[in-house]
């Protein structure tokens, strides 16, 4: 718990203009940065467009879950990507983005880990600090991906949507520099993305696995229609699917087919 109210200064536009290979635009408020970037992608915007909202009022998460952020309390942004890779490799984009965010936070001194596929967790109690939504869209210039990130920075306990969530300020006791943090995350995403497009798939998978707390645990995977898969999460396959060893052997499940993945109680 923090002892002082956060200052929440605005993002520094002059510093964001230095981001290599990116065109960063900051807007005061929008319902969803993903929707805005998707619209601009269809209008022909190039890869590397980044739209950041100081206040996002109707953000969307995986499976159309909704949330909003207090003004200047978070980093809510979307990046336009146009990867020239086979469609079979695209399911790795959400995992790549989550890994890149967690890596940047860890480099900044935060105890950040990943829950498959791309929730970023913080601290020993593994509370969610960031969510990722990557959407594939069709544009006149070909398919594109919009990678959206929502990271709680100075959000206070009473402002959090869930008891299982947290923020960087709650975790560290100090308000981070949002501008510097955004630049670090964008560089981490860019580096991981360039490597992935260039064919470094196995290196990315190994790095992802080293940061993923889901693998190696007993889990309950909740599927549509009330079905569930219970077993040990043994890995992530080449397609980004979680591999679970259950009573009937190993089953691979994709992020789009899963409602929730929950760890089983340790006494079971």
Quick structural overview:
The protein has six helices and 14 strands. The protein is α+β, with helices and mostly antiparallel strands.
Observed structural traits:
268 residues, SH3 type barrels, alpha+beta, 6 helices, seven-stranded mixed beta sheet, globular, 2 domains, five-stranded antiparallel beta sheet, BirA Bifunctional Protein, domain 2, 25% helix
In words, what does this structure look like?
With 268 residues, the protein is an alpha+beta fold. The protein folds into 2 domains: 199 residues, BirA Bifunctional Protein, domain 2 (2-Layer Sandwich); 46 residues, SH3 type barrels, CATH 2.30.30.100. Helices cover 25% and strands 33% of the residues. It contains 6 helices and 14 strands. Strands 1-2-5-9-8-7-6 form a 7-stranded mixed beta sheet, sandwiched between helices. The protein has a 5-stranded antiparallel beta sheet with strand order 13-12-11-10-14, with no helix packed on it. The longest helix has 20 residues. The model has no long low-confidence stretch (mean pLDDT 93).
